[in-house]
Write a structure and sequence with these properties.
There is one protein chain. By secondary structure, the chain is of the alpha/beta class. Helices cover 43% and strands 16% of the residues. The protein is built from eleven helices and nine strands. It starts with a helix and ends with a helix.
Length: 207
């Protein structure tokens, strides 16, 4: 599976922060049941790698990825845990090389034309736009499409159910990333029905 194929799985990629690895499997099952198989588990907590490992082992219909990959070793550890794609908030030369070395699809983060062009020089055409809203949002992506139409983006950062359709309507946006699908209170309470309902609403979004 390449990066384009990961982004084509659903209009929204849930961006998940997990403090308890025991919540990983039921959370992933709820998201998949709602129609969102691609799941980004961010490396912001000590539970993240174990969560990725559990989802990879126990939820076969999930395509679990690692987010907040900021060092080459993050990419290596994520791949070893079973991640099937990698996402970074920004990108340096060493990080790009480290992610590419895993052989996994990866979405390097960019927020400007120069950053995008630097990745294009290395054949990367699928990227994360982050932080999307703070960097100019829909206006930025519209502006980038003219000179760089070959790039496909997954905007993340400030995306909501209200503004997601505007992003999804853009020709250079493949999907969006969002954290609203797994509210902290729902995860802590184990309210997987609520997570599934939010996922189903997101899976129905279109531009």
């Amino acid at each position: 599976m390449n990066a384009e194929e990961v982004l084509a799985l659903a209009p929204v990629v849930p961006v998940v922060v997990l403090d308890d690895p025991d919540a990983a499997v039921p959370l992933a099952r709820a998201l998949v049941a709602g129609g969102l198989p691609a799941i980004e588990v961010t490396l912001r907590t000590s539970a993240a790698l174990e969560a990725i490992e559990r989802i990879a082992a126990e939820v076969p219909d999930a395509v679990v990825g690692a987010g907040t990959v900021v060092r080459p070793e993050d990419a290596q550890r994520s791949a070893a845990a079973g991640a099937r794609f990698l996402v970074s908030p920004g990108c340096t030369a060493s990080l790009r090389e480290g992610m590419a070395a895993t052989g996994l699809p990866f979405l390097p983060g960019v927020s400007s034309a120069s950053e995008a062009m630097a990745l294009l020089e290395h054949g990367v055409t699928v990227m994360k736009c982050f932080p999307a809203e703070a960097s100019g949002g829909i206006g930025l992506l519209k502006s980038l499409y003219g000179p760089l139409p070959q790039i496909r983006f997954c905007p993340t950062g400030g995306i909501t159910p209200a503004n997601a359709p505007g992003y999804l309507a853009l020709p250079n946006v493949a999907c969006v990333g969002g954290s609203w699908l797994t509210p902290a209170d729902a995860v802590q309470a184990g309210d997987w029905d609520r997570v599934e309902a939010l996922a189903a609403e997101a899976a129905a979004l279109s531009g």
